[in-house]
Amino acid sequence: MKSKFICEELNIGTATVTDWASFCREVCQNILIWRSGKIGGPGIVVEIDESKFGKRKYNRGKRVVGRWVFGGVERGSNNYFFAVLENRTSEVLLSVIKEHILPGMTVMSDCWSS
């Protein structure tokens, strides 16, 4: 939904709409991270992936300024985990995997470079 539409419908300023959108985004992020837990186990398939969330500088080029998020989802259930990372080195990713995924599972990934 566009900010302009919300401003006109509710008769409020763009700064207020931006603040509320930021607040709602932060609440969703906190709930996802708070509900993250250990997943996997014997015979369970866990899919993992990473993404960088942010904006491109001046809306040009490929470089994105933002934060890395690493997550995993257990196939056939609603169990998941998310972790916000400072960098995505293999050491950091392996420590997150050990922290959030139980032993004995099968891990599926898109073969990221890390």
Describe this structure in words.
- The chain is α/β, with parallel strands linked by helices.
- It folds into two domains: 1-35; 37-113, no CATH class.
- The chain is 36% helix and 32% strand.
- It has three helices and six strands; from the N terminus they run H-H-E-E-E-E-H-E-E.
- The chain has helices at residues 3-10, 14-35, 90-100, and strands at residues 39-40, 45-56, 64-74, 80-85, 101-102, 106-108.
- Strand 2 and strand 3 (64-74) form a beta hairpin.
- The two termini are 36 Å apart.
Q: What topology does this entry show?
A:
Blueprint (H helix, E strand, L loop, with lengths): L2 H8 L3 H22 L3 E2 L4 E12 L7 E11 L5 E6 L4 H11 E2 L3 E3 L6
Quick overview of this protein structure:
The protein is an alpha/beta fold. The protein has helices at residues 3-10, 14-35, 90-100; strands spanning 39-40, 45-56, 64-74, 80-85, 101-102, 106-108. The strands form two sheets. A four-stranded mixed β-sheet has the order 4-3-2-6, with helices on both faces. It has a two-stranded parallel sheet with strand order 1-5.
The fraction of residues assigned to DSSP E strands is: 25-35%
Low-confidence stretches: none
Distance between the termini: 36 Å
How many DSSP helices?
Answer: 3
List how many beta strands DSSP finds: 6
The largest sheet, given as strand count, sense and whether it forms a barrel, is: 4 strands, mixed
- H-E order: HHEEEEHEE
Number of domains: 2
Strand order of the largest sheet: 4-3-2-6
Q: What is the mean predicted local confidence, pLDDT?
A: 86
